[in-house]
Amino acid sequence: MLTRRQGLALLAAAPAVAAGPALAQPGFPDQPVRMIVPFAAGGPADIIARIMGQVMGRELRQPIVVDSRSGAGGMVGVEAAARSRPDGLTTVLASTGALVVLPQLMPRMAYDVGKDLAPITHVLSVPQILVVSPKLGVRSVAELVALAKRQPGKLTYGSAGNGSSLHLAGELFRLRTGIDIIHVPYRGAAPAVTDLLGGTIDMILADVPVIISHIRGGALPALAVTADQRLSSLPDIPTMAEAGARDVISETWYALFAPAGTPPERIAVLHRAAVTALADPDTRRSLADQGGIIAGGTPEQLAAFVRSETSKWGEIIRLADIKID
Fold first, then answer.
1. Which of 14, 94, 193, 267 gets the most CB atoms within 10 Å of its CB?
2. Sign of torsion, CA 264 268 273 279?
């Protein structure tokens, strides 16, 4: 997640429409391409879409128009994309919640990810960082786990709400390390971080942009990052595996899709434009500065990744008996 201030700063450098030359890409319609963002303007998906849209528009030789469709944790925008005409002129930049988490928590869904969406490419992953209250006096994952085992049911962790990516990350950490810690849900990550700074809760696994300023400023000790590699923006923080907690990989990730039935040749054009954008040095720098790990890959790799993530988080949801509010 980006903070609103970070989002607005990046928005100033990324206009809503990225225009390319008038000549259309061969075999592609000579019309603007809509990129649905299923969250409010100024948020992380919106910023990613606008940054990518600059290069994609040049590659497609058509404008990329960002269309914000927020609501229901991203489901409103994803449904709008799934119901759009499959002509290559509509895409959606969706994220973990609406693609793999909410479908396993909601009794009824208006779309089926595997049937109603055509994958284009995995765009970006933003891992979480485990940070603790300075009052705990721990400086490593091993020390935190040892403390939690000495005091079962006493330590607390905050999240952005039941069923949020931060809640699932906390449960993944709890299950993988075998500790007994208490979940405290908030209405968003910001109030959870505020309470962590005040010592009301003991720890949180927060998306990098939410917590990075507090880490750099020395207000909160950072113990580990939930990725399989260290972050270039915070190279001194070990991965969970390096810190002794295996299989604690948790990321808020973003991926680009089109409506199912979009012709393969148009998916191919969109894919080339997207991966070209992700290879662009300025794009990579902007995304990496926010703690993101650039992904990319083929449509087939994205489809396999979504299936893997669905299985992984489905297991955590069942084991932790997570229910949505």
1. 94
2. positive
One-letter amino acid for residue 43 of the chain: G
Using one digit for the tens of pLDDT, what is the confidence trace for 125-143? Answer: 999 999 999 999 999 999 9
CA distance 320 to 91: 34
pLDDT tens track for 64-101: 999 999 898 899 999 999 999 999 999 999 999 999 99
Q: Identify the three-state secondary structure at position 183.
A: strand
The two three-digit tokens of residue 253, written as one number: 């990730």
> Considering the domain boundaries, does residue 200 fall inside one?
yes
| 324 domain residue, yes or no | no
Both 46 and 103 in one domain: the answer is yes
How many beta carbons lie within 10 A of that of residue 167, not counting itself?
Answer: 26
The residue from 250, 278, 302 where one domain ends is: 250
The backbone torsions φ and ψ at residue 91, rounded to the nearest 5 degrees and listed phi first, read: -130, 170
In a shared domain, residues 80 and 100: yes
Q: Is residue 108 part of a domain?
A: yes
CATH code for the domain of 189: 3.40.190.10
| Locus of tokens 């992953």 | 125
Residue 179: what are its φ and ψ, rounded to 5°? Answer: -105, 165
Taking residues 53-74, report their average pLDDT: 93
**DSSP E strands, the chain:** 17-18, 33-37, 64-68, 90-95, 117-132, 156-159, 182-185, 203-207, 222-225, 251-259, 293-296
In which residue are the tokens 């089109």 written? 258
Q: Which two tokens stand for residue 311?
A: 């299985």
Per the listing, tokens 């061969």 go with: 26
Q: Structural domain tally of the chain?
A: 2
Query: What's CA 218's distance to the chain center, in Å?
Result: 25
Rounded to an integer, what distance in angstroms lies between the CA atom of residue 92 and that of residue 5?
24
* Parent domain of 232: 127-250
